[in-house]
Design goal:
By secondary structure, the protein is an all-alpha fold. The chain has helices at residues 2-22, 27-58, 69-91, 94-100, 104-135, 152-166, 178-204, 208-217, 230-236. It is rod-shaped.
């Protein structure tokens, strides 16, 4: 795996840059060193986060796609470039080393590491999104309707769960957030499987014609007049059933 090796190279460069910065008085050069150190630190932290997250993600079948040849070359080049940059920075006297930080060699090394981080994160995010779609409970995309006799708290909870389960995975938070997101999706899916039947059971307690009427009334099209059968009329005559019902006229 490229992440641990690259993280180690970035760490070595970061250590070298820190040593150089301690002896540098020139503000411009020091700023350049600080910028390079910040980029090396970010890459090291991101690569370490990917490496730490992978074991838990692989348990659920989430892993980077087969790395394309271009990315493998980039990873190899990044390792070499980071090693070379760290070696060159360490071998010079502090002033020459500080000025070497601004050269193309160091910049290319950091760019290569950053490219690998982006590619790995993007690949993991795509794999995580496919996994999410595969574990979605049946019927999770159907509207959650507050039928008469159903607890408002249950409806609100189901709607919140539905919103989170059906949201596309946001990989911008980085690999460190992936495992906790997986755990949350699994927990929410289990709660949906447990609580959604409670909502459906509230319907099953009614006459089949009432169930048909309520299901259709909950849709955007609404319930047609022919669904108001004698059984439905009897049900509607009970004030306790109609508290939350409204009639909407459409042309």
């Amino acid at each position: 795996m490229t992440a641990p090796a690259l993280a180690a190279r970035a760490r070595k460069l970061l250590d070298r840059l820190g040593q150089v910065m301690e002896g540098e008085a020139d503000v411009h050069v020091r700023t350049s060193v600080e910028s390079a150190a910040g980029r090396a630190r970010s890459s090291r932290e991101a690569l370490s986060a990917i490496d730490a997250a992978l074991p838990r993600l692989r348990e659920h079948g989430i892993a980077p796609e087969g790395l394309p040849a271009e990315l493998i070359r980039s990873a190899t080049n990044a390792r070499t470039a980071l090693r070379t940059a760290a070696t060159n920075v360490a071998s010079d006297d502090p002033r020459n080393a500080a000025r070497r930080v601004g050269t193309d060699t160091v910049d290319r090394a950091l760019e290569s590491a950053e490219k690998v981080v982006r590619s790995l994160n993007d690949s993991l995010a795509k794999s995580a999104e496919r996994w999410r779609l595969g574990v979605l409970p049946q019927g999770v995309n159907q509207p959650v309707t507050s039928y008469p006799g159903v607890s408002d708290a249950l409806v609100i909870s189901l709607r919140r769960i539905q919103t989170k389960l059906t949201a596309r995975f946001d990989g911008s938070r980085g690999a460190a957030a992936f495992p906790d997101w997986v755990d949350e999706i699994l927990e929410l899916a289990a709660r949906w499987e447990r609580d959604r039947p409670v909502l459906e059971k509230a319907l099953q307690d009614h006459h089949p014609e009432v169930v048909a009427f309520l299901r259709q009334a909950a849709t955007e099209a609404g319930a047609s007049w022919d669904l108001i059968t004698p059984s439905v009329q009897k049900w509607l005559a009970d004030p306790g059933h109609t508290t939350g019902l409204k009639v909407v006229l459409r042309s």
